[in-house]
Amino acid sequence: MKKTVLLKVDPETPDIEKVRVAARLIRRGGLVAFPTETVYGLGADALNGSAVLALFEAKKRPLDNPPIVHVCGVEDVRRVAREVPPKAEALMKLFWPGPLTLVLKRSRALPDVTVAGLDTVAVRMPRHEVALALIRESGCPVSAPSANLAGRPSPTLARHVLDDLNGRIDAVLDAGPTAVGVESTVLDLTVDPPEVLRPGGTPFEALKEVLGCVVLNPAVSAEKPVPAGPVRSPGLKHKHYAPDACVVVVEGELPALVKKVNELVAYYVRRGSKVGVLCTAETAGSYKTGVVKCVGSRSDLGSIARSLFASLREFDMEGVDVIVAEGVPLEGLGLAVMNRLRRASGYKIVKAI
Ligand code: TXA
Ligand code: MG
C-alpha cells in the first residue's frame, strides 16, 4: 500500500508550492487526484504509458475505456489531437475552460494505452484554478478519469476520493466541493453531425444553439441497457455510478410521482429493507418513512446535479438497502442527472402515471 498524501489548497488561489509537489509526482509517473469544476479527477502524465496503465489499475478500470486528457490551454490541444476542425475551435472559444470534452482524431504522440487503442482522443480544459495550475506545472497533458473506483459514484469531495483510493494513489489536492457535480459533456466531433456521447455539465441545449445540428447518442437517454456490440464511447457499456444500495428510479409528473414513490417505499419497508428516498425540496415534505434526502430544487436542476453523487454515497454510509429516487425533467442539467440515475439503477425505472 502507498501512503496517499493529502494536500489542502485554496480553490481560487492555490499554494503553488503544494501544487508543485503534486506536479513533481505526476512528472515522475505518479497518480494525483485533483479537483475540477465537475468532479475530482485522478491524474497521470498522458504521455507516459506506464503511468496511465497504473491509473487504470488504481481505479480497477477496464483497459478498453480511455480517460479524458486534460490540457491547460487551447494551444495544447495540438499536442494530443492531429486535427482540430473549425467546429472544435469555435466550441473551445465559447465553452473552455469548462465542462465540455471534445472527441478528436488522436495524435501519434500519445501512447496507445492513453486512448485505449482508439484512433480518437477525448480532451478538455477544466474550469478550476487548481486543475489548471497542476497541468501547467506538470508540463504535460494530464489523463484523468474521475477519481473513484470503477463503477462507483464519481467523487465531488476529497473525502470521496480517499474513501475509494486511499493507499492506491500518491496524493490528493483537496480544494473542497466541486461546483458542477456531474462530469463533463462528451461531444464527438469526428462524426457529422456531432454527437453527444455523454450528457454532462454543458447542457445539450447550449450546444444546439451554437452548432445548429447536433445529436444525442441513443444511449444517452436510453431507458434500458445499450445492446452489446461495438459502441462508440466505451464508457457507455460499463456499469456506472452505482452505490452499494439497489436504486429504483421513479419517473413522471407530480403529484403522481410522489404517490408512486410512497407506494414503493411502503412495499420495500414491508419486505424488511432499509429504504432511502432521494427527493427534491418541492416534495420532501410528502415522505414520512425511510431515510429521506433532499438532493436539491426542481427549480434549479444544477443544485440537484451538484449533490447527486454525494447523496448516493451518503445513503451507503447509512446502510440503506434500497434507494427510491425521484426522476427530474430531461432538460438542462436534468439530462445528465437522469442519465446517471438510470444507469445507477441498472435501468430499474418505474413510470408513475
Ligand atoms: O468531468 C469529467 O469529464 C471528469 C473530470 C475529472 O474531468 N472526467 C471524467 O473522465 O469523467 P472519465 O474517464 O471518468 O470519463 C470519460 C468518458 C468515458 O465515458 C469514456 O468512455 C469517454 O469519456 N471517452 C474517453 N475517450 C473517448 C474517445 N476517444 N471516444 C469516445 N469516448 C471517449
Ligand atoms: Mg468516471
Helix fraction bin: 25-40%
CATH topology of the largest domain: DHBP synthase
Multimer state: single chain
- What is the CATH class name of the largest domain? Alpha Beta
Report Rg: 20 Å
Q: State the CATH superfamily name of the largest domain.
A: DHBP synthase
Number of beta-strand segments? 16
Q: How much of the sequence is in beta strands?
A: 15-25%
Cα separation of the termini: 52 Å
Poorly predicted sequence stretches spanning 5 or more consecutive residues: none
Mean pLDDT: 95
Number of helix segments? 9
Question: If you had to describe this structure to a student in words, what would you say it looks like?
Answer:
With 353 residues, this protein is an alpha/beta fold. It has two domains: 5-216, DHBP synthase; 246-352, 3-Layer(aba) Sandwich (Rossmann fold), CATH 3.40.50.11030. It has nine helices and 16 strands. The protein has helices at residues 16-27, 49-59, 86-95, 129-138, 158-165, 204-211, 256-270, 301-317, 334-344; strands at residues 5-8, 32-35, 40-45, 68-70, 100-105, 120-124, 142-144, 171-174, 185-188, 195-198, 215-216, 246-251, 275-279, 291-294, 322-326, 349-351. It has an eleven-stranded mixed beta sheet, sandwiched between helices. Helix 1 packs across helix 4 (129-138). The longest helix has 17 residues, at 301-317. The N and C termini lie far apart (52 Å). The model has no long low-confidence stretch (mean pLDDT 95). Bound molecules: threonylcarbamoyladenylate and magnesium ion (MG). Threonylcarbamoyladenylate (TXA) is lined by residues 36, 38-39, 41, 65-68, 99, 101, 103, 115, 118, 120-122, 126, 144-146, 183-184, 186, 197-198, 232-235.
